[in-house]
Amino acid sequence: MIDTRTTEMQELISPKLPHIFYGGDYNPEQWPKATWQEDVRLMQEAGVNVVSLGIFAWAWLEPRPGEYHFEWLDEIMDLLHAHGIMVDLATATASPPPWLAKLHPESLPVTADGVRLSPGSRQQYCPSNHAYREAAQALVKQLAERYRDHPALILWHIGNEYGCHIPDCYCDQSAAAFREWLQQRYGTIEALNDAWGTAFWSQRYGTWDEINPPRAAPTFINPTQQLDWRRFSSDALLECYEQERSILKEITPDVPVTTNFMGFFKPLDYWKWARREDVVSNDSYPDPSDPHSHVAQAMSYDLMRSLGGGKPWLLMEQVTSQVQWRPHNPLKRPGQMRLLSYQALARGANGIMFFQWRASQAGAEKFHGGMVPHVGTANSRVWDEVRKLGAELPRLDPLLAARVPADIAILLDWESWWAVEQDAKPSQDVRVLSQILSYYAPLFMRNITVDFVPPNADLHGYKVVLAPNLYMVRDDIAQTLEQFVSNGGTLVMSFFSGIVDERDHILLGGYPAPFRRVLGLRVEEFDPYVPGQTNHIRMSDGSTYTCDLWSDVIDLEGAEALAYWTDDFYAGRPAITRHAFGQGISYYLGTRPEQVCMEQILEQVCNEADVRPVLAVPPGVEVVRRENADRSFLFVLNHTTSAVEIGLNQTAHNLLTGEEHSERVTLQSRAVAVLESGR
Ligand code: GAL
């Protein structure tokens, strides 16, 4: 029998706080002590129950090398605790103090062009630099030992947004670390030469020390060298994270750890990173002036849930009103912050936090919004919205252990993403994120929830797997997908998939070699378009659609054509195909069709696979279901600027208003309902 209590505890970020986390980055070092008192009072007023503390406080904690000052942190930790506020305590290593650069100029990062960057901004460290790593670890040890038993400590926040500004460093120390990493991977120089295809352009290496990072060079750099550099650079930062994590795990084994992700952040292979976290957390700054930004945001939230294997995650940062780092920074409109907060909860988050608690008075982020704005709290729209949200979140406690079910998975392989977007390709316009979005958006619009999966995933339980541009084939993915389809699953694969192995060597014998059997076709040639060029496809019912970006020239080997090219020398040949394989079906899209066509194809796929929308609602309304063993929680989010009526198919209890709805619920513009019912 399942012990539901234990299962529910496992779903909590920490048993110390069995509620939705609510709070933000708190930087008391920027303010006089008198303000601290006001801060904790206002935090209580806003319903804040947790803050992230000390993220950029290294220079305050260690003003001179080896000289630690924790008195102020002791005081603020105690003050927060006395007011019932928990602490996500940072290891403070995201930005070293200026003394590190003075003492160790070699700790500063170097660009591919050989420019050494200066302090005066943030994150100015080379990930492979020993002095940085040693100083960081020493600080982490001090912090862990000092606060190990502090009652306010609930979570460790390691670093901050790893790689955000400096995803890689090209200095000599990084070069040495790269060589070591390559020796680990390949063992012998012959194996490296083979993997890198150095027979080409006289690139053969005789010894390891001839190898360098892919620094500025006369023309295209060896693609496998570039790819290994991406792998190495993600690993180098992960090693920094891992060194801090192991200190924390040794001293405070029961305190969970996280580091905040940045959505679909290309430089770091988050599948690898997430395995080292107890809680996945994410920072999200959708552009409030883009009417579609909530779609990409939903997609990144689905990724966060998937990175943690479906466990609740934490929205570590968003902004109440406006950021300061875009060229133009409009405000979130009234109700938009609340709506976007609920979107995170709908997609599996158990916490809503902000950068930052109090808007700064000085520094590069002084025009970035805060929970407490520059105008203060009296007659402030922002503060009112912050306070109201904080007041209603406790009503959602019943859903803390509820998960988000999904029948469809999108395959995302970071290494393939790196490889396909390198230079010297058939088209520089094949971009993984926009390709994924072109599959995700039609499903989002129909309120069909999607998970993401890595290439070594267990696909059991999914009805449909989408593989847009799976350029690189590794981790037995070809066998996994073949098995999935033959057991009754549906696969949808796009052009420029199955092209190379993990060394970025072409898989010969007709594209997409390892998937030809399951797809029932061969791609003889591909024809990428120049900007503005289009072609057309005709579906079997006679309807015609425009395509851009790419044409595959396809031979059928068992598949049937669903659409044919109408133009060019390959007119009449298949463009979109369907293949019955084993008990399942595979689809192949040899182009990028316009959105209505994508909608139609994905609708057909979903109908055949019996994947149903969560609820049929008017356009612009997002619906997501969370559920636990016996309850279902339907999030209904109105992203439009007018009121909408939603028809319900069962009686439900609105957790936010306390109302019972039997047949329908009316939602004003940007309003939200969370409807609880039995399963
Ligand atoms: C994040 C960062 C925060 C703050 C914020 C501004 O990238 O973690 O420290 O800079 O952006 O939007």
Low-confidence spans? none
Radius of gyration: 26 Å
Structural class designation: alpha/beta
Largest β sheet strand count, sense and barrel closure:
10 strands, mixed
N/C terminus separation: 19 Å
What CATH architecture of the largest domain would you give? Alpha-Beta Barrel
CATH topology of the largest domain: TIM Barrel
Count of the separate structural domains: 4
Separate helix tally: 18
The percent range for strand residues is 15-25%
Strand order of the largest sheet: 11-10-12-13-20-19-18-15-16-21
Subunit organisation of the chains: single chain
Bound molecules: beta-D-galactopyranose
Bin the helical content.
Answer: 25-40%
Structural features, described:
Strands 11-10-12-13-20-19-18-15-16-21 form a ten-stranded mixed beta sheet. A nine-stranded parallel beta sheet has the order 5-4-3-2-1-9-8-7-6, covered by helices on one side. The two termini are 19 Å apart. The model has no long low-confidence stretch (mean pLDDT 97). The chain has 679 residues and is an alpha/beta fold. The protein folds into four domains: 49-279, Alpha-Beta Barrel (TIM Barrel); 282-400; 408-609, 3-Layer(aba) Sandwich (Rossmann fold), CATH 3.40.50; 621-678, Immunoglobulin-like (Sandwich), CATH 2.60.40.1180. The chain is 30% helix and 20% strand. It contains 18 helices and 28 strands. Beta-D-galactopyranose binds at residues 160-161, 164, 283, 285, 317, 323, 355, 365, 368.
